[in-house]
Design brief:
The chain has 163 residues and is of the alpha+beta class. It has helices at residues 11-24, 36-44, 95-109, 125-133, and strands at residues 2-5, 49-55, 61-70, 79-86, 114-121, 137-148, 152-162.
């Protein structure tokens, strides 16, 4: 397995994972009706750097991916923000951890001073555990900020790590 910078040619493999993740309605704020262009812009828009985790043994099949962007422009541009998606077939195999570790390394190399995750869904136990185990601090909870497809309104969490 390897992580490499994503290119627009990867998008056809990324889109089914995007669709699968947002269909769950339990980890991302995208509606199921989000267009392919919405997905493309999210992962390849201006100022976005995306990376894919691929399985070389399976013919370079993409298992998951992440992106790094500035959390804010101007005087807040030294803080990174990142988003991650892993296909269901690859979950529970350490893909998220490897991408999280790579994201921290990439953010440092890109000159960011910190990483902030603005909207981690509190009921997403694997993500909550992963970010804490990688050294992110839970700064606060936004009560009822996410409308979970099955559970209704649940908290979103802001995580932060100084680099």
């Amino acid at each position: 397995m390897q992580i490499r910078k994503a290119t627009p040619d990867d998008f056809p493999q990324m889109l089914p994972i995007f669709r699968e993740v947002i269909q769950g309605g339990d980890t991302y704020d995208f509606e199921e009706t989000a267009s392919d262009q919405d997905a493309y812009d999210y992962w390849f828009g201006k100022g976005v750097t995306s990376f894919v985790m691929e399985d070389d043994a399976a013919g370079s099949k993409i298992l998951g991916y992440y992106k790094i962007i500035q959390n804010h422009r101007g005087r807040g541009s030294h803080v990174a923000n990142a988003s991650f998606m892993v296909g269901s077939a690859a979950r529970g195999k350490g893909i998220g951890r490897k991408m999280g570790e790579d994201c921290i390394r990439q953010a440092r190399e890109m000159g960011f001073k910190a990483i902030q995750f603005n909207f981690v869904i509190s009921t997403n136990e694997p993500a909550m555990h992963l970010w804490k185990s990688l050294g992110f601090k839970e700064l606060c909870r936004l009560p009822g900020a996410f409308n979970h497809k099955k559970l209704g309104y649940v908290d979103a969490v802001i995580f932060f790590m100084e680099l």
